Amino acid sequence: xxxxxxxxxxxxxxxxxxxxxxxxxxxxxxxxxxxxxxxxxxxxxxxxxxxxxxxxxxxxxxxxxxxxxxxxxxxxxxxxxxxxxxxxxxxxxxxxxxxxxxxxxxxxxxxxxxxxxxxxxxxxxxxxxxxxxxxxxxxxxxxxxxxxxxxxxxxxxxxxxxxxxxxxxxxxxxxxxxxxxxxxxxxxxxxxxxxxxxxxxxxxxxxxxxxxxxxxxxxxxxxxxxxxxxxxxxxxxxxxxxxxxxxxxxxxxxxxxxxxxxxxxxxxxxxxxxxxxxxxxxxxxxxxxxxxxxxxxxxxxxxxxxxxxxxxxxxxxxxxxxxxxxxxxxxxxxxxxxxxxxxxxxxxxxxx
Length: 352
Description:
The protein is mostly helical and 352 residues long. The chain folds into 2 domains: 183 residues, no CATH class; 166 residues, no CATH class. It has 12 helices and 2 strands; from the N terminus they run ααααααβααααααβ. The longest helix is centred in the N-terminal third of the chain and has 34 residues.
């Protein structure tokens, strides 16, 4: 993608920014869907007919009957009433509905702006790539759901959940970068090679941290070690590499995943402190950078506190109940997204 798109039209800029906000909401809805255990309530993917929820008692009973044939209902929710089912159905339906809405806003906006000749030739290719990434994300989402509808699975496979989450982050980062090209003038760019290296390093570590965060969610690993600062009383858990072969521990062993997620959190915190020190050493003519250079440290500090609160409150988890743990977990995800987008913003501003 081009580094800058000079003099973009205001309608294009606003349209792209609306898309970024809608994608942010979509990822947060995915988090709510996961925390409420709603992801497997809809057993089919009907792109058009699935846009509307059941509108009659007969339709509700039909959908409930389909859910009754899933492993999750048989092994975990056999006591569910229709009222219980409607609750989890709503969040999965709303998550899918919002994804459709994002697609509709994109297509209508693209066609309208193309017709009005607001889109430059240099914008067409990245926008088409953005659309394809969105379609791919929908396909990955359905693959993830299918992984929880067969055999003795009561939840989606954690690795597929992580894949779905990472694709979503890639999509929003791509859209956000495009938005930055429309909103940030070239005069706001600063040249600091060393700070750019720090920014890229943080983004690389953050990438792996987000993967392990998704694995934490998929395995519900917070409850596997609800103590802090130690992990169930140990600084170095004895069960860290108990599985064989060794690499399977990094995707299946809850304690290993938990340990690495904490370790990367501390590393990110230290790297962000170093980044902030370097960012404040020299003055900058860029008001964009000056106004925002403290954001990364503020966000990562908040994120660390929310992570600790999420872990130590994991014993409070109650099935089909939204409580303090769920609030902390959702805020933890929100701040992680804001930190990611802030570092993408910094990467855009800081060049070598």
